[in-house]
Amino acid sequence: MNRKQTLIFVLFLGFTLQYCSILMPEKEDNNNNMLAVLALAANAPSQTAFLETYSQIAFQNYSDSYTDVVALRQKVATFTGKASPTLAELNEVKTYWRKARRSYLQTEIFRFSQGPIDNPALTGGVELEPLVNAWPLDEGYIDTVVLTGAITKQGLIDANEGDCATGTCPDGDPAKNISVGWHAIEYLLWGADAANNFTPGTTVTQSNFTTANGSGSAAAKRSAYLLYATEILESHLLQLKNAWDPSVSGSYVSKFKSSSTSFENVLRGIARFSGGEWGGERMTGVFGGEQEEEHSCFSDNTKADFYYDAQGLNNLYNGTYSGSQTINGYGLKNLLGGESNYIKERIDTAQLFCLNEFTEDVSLNQACNSSIISSRFDRMIATVNISGSATENADYNIFRYQIQPAVQEIAKALQRSAASFGVSIGDDGLVLE
Fold first, then answer.
1. For residue 411, what are the CA distances in angstroms to 116, 125, 277, 337?
2. Statement: residue 361 has pLDDT above 80
3. What is the pTM of this model?
4. Separation CA 139–CA 194 (nearest Å)
5. How far apart (Å, rounded) are the C-alpha atoms in residues 62 and 288?
6. Disulfide: which of 171, 205, 344, 423 matches 418 by Cβ 3.0-4.6 Å?
């Protein structure tokens, strides 16, 4: 039975059941339950089409992220192999880090959906996300290793999220000893972003890297650390790419497309990421005006972080992806009925960021207008505690009272939409204000 035949059959049964309910009103509850079951059956082909598109986007997105990090690693290898690298060469590596972030950030929408990014059962018992994008960072740990410790690639992996023996744990949390991933690389490239310093971190310069003194100097160790951390990130993204590759025998993607729980997991994952992580911890964490609470506080890349998180959801909403390969398929907009326009409006609101903080390569900066956030993100959030300009104050209000609530409204809309598919998304893991 094809989809058209299925729909005709469902409509016929629905009419029959409605007619019977008039004759036998005591059966109305049973009839309503049956109609709900039939509605779910009618939706099944659409869900299958969406999951197919979702898997294609995931594979292409992770493929692009892997490719971009390979390019970053190649630049890092050249840079860290020099005895006296230049400032221009350091800035070039920083720009490659920023460019590689754009593709990775779009993959974050795949989190919390029982997929390989944060399900250790699928990746040999090792959860990959804490090794890829965990934050906040224990800066003191990295400084201690660079200055006094021995550096090995496996040692950095083993130390990640371990105990902070140096007593420098952020917020006193002993499980925040982050030693690898995007933000460890970021810190190695930019260094700390001091309070009220409204530029990216400036404590690291080209003189902090060298091969001239063997493995003993702090600069030589920083070079080794940077290369190891980038190689580790590359290897983990390759794992994720391969997990979604339909040509790899036994890869996760075949299980994903055949599992009866995948659609439910995806809806729950998107809601949890929107309400708990992206629009929750990451955005609400800066309401106190602390620069250290920025998601990318060393590079001041936070506006791009939030913008491309929204783009990742926009990809799934439309069923499209534009990268090294273009995908046009079946999106959430084709499934969510009356909530579709509501969600799309909030995705658009979530992208009200002008991306203009790229001091290393100003050619990347967008031209800004007054309707979106043009201020530096750290300067904008600091207006909570200090006097800011009229533009900075207005931009903070856009962020606090338009963008952040819009992202959490996406989670609420998905909760409502899920019910029509017989899926219940509770508040666990969501920050719903």
1. 22, 29, 11, 16
2. yes
3. 0.88
4. 12
5. 34
6. 423
